[in-house]
Automatic annotation (TrEMBL):
It comes from Xenopus tropicalis. The active site is at residue 85. This is Pyroglutamyl-peptidase I. Gene3D superfamilies: Peptidase C15, pyroglutamyl peptidase I-like. Belongs to the peptidase C15 family. CDD domains: Peptidase_C15.
């Protein structure tokens, strides 16, 4: 019997502001070319920088693909390293999106906790990714910026019960190429899948 493939969903963002070419989507497209190995079904999506689309799209992607993990990639003009975000925030959304819209409540989920963390150990992911010797710097952050990136991460963490990760990449050429960013994301996801498999093996041992 053929073993069922693992589904992984990875998203990047479309253009906004000065980012007429969004490095996150370019990096995700590079990942699409590289793939994640024959046992993984990789599904990539470009998300428009719109709050309401994010709220509609994330549950739809989860329902459609039932991914083992969902990984979102965004660009940060301030980043100089590939940055793994530990948590998403619920409130403080005042920046207008590409439709000149911002949530009236300035929050993702009314009544939701202020901060949601990934169930995946982000510090360990960062450490293992750095050990891959890609000539790319990796770092960890606890502030995804209170705009569409943070909003997407919180929404996704809420929907997936923490089985989501957010990666911020620097703009293209500052200092990394599209290929380097694609390889960095590929490395991070392979580390995550490996960690999830190990933790599930550990749980299964406990139940047998």
């Amino acid at each position: 019997m053929e073993e069922q493939k693992i589904a992984v969903v990875v998203t990047g963002f479309g253009p906004f502001g000065e980012h007429t070419v969004n490095a996150s989507w370019v990096a995700v497209q590079e990942l699409g070319k590289l793939g994640l190995g024959k046992e993984v079904d990789l599904h990539i999506y470009e998300i428009p920088v719109e709050y309401q689309t994010v709220q509609r799209l994330i549950p739809a992607l989860r329902k459609k693909h039932k991914p083992k993990v969902i990984v979102h990639v965004g660009v940060s003009g301030m980043a100089t390293a590939v940055t793994l975000e530990k948590c998403g925030h619920n409130t403080g959304y005042q920046g207008l999106d590409n439709c000149e819209f911002c949530p009236g409540t300035q929050c993702c989920v009314e009544g939701g906790p202020e901060c949601l963390h990934s169930v995946i150990d982000i510090d360990t992911v960062c450490k293992r990714a750095a050990e891959a010797c890609l000539d790319v710097q990796f770092t960890v952050s606890t502030d995804a910026g209170r705009y569409l990136c943070d909003f997407t991460y919180y929404t996704s963490l809420y929907q997936s019960h923490g089985r989501s990760v957010f990666i911020h990449v620097p703009p293209l050429g500052k200092p990394y190429t599209a290929i380097q960013l694609g390889q960095a994301i590929q490395t991070i996801i392979k580390v995550i899948l490996d960690m999830l498999e190990q933790s599930e093996d550990h749980l299964n041992c406990g139940h047998s």
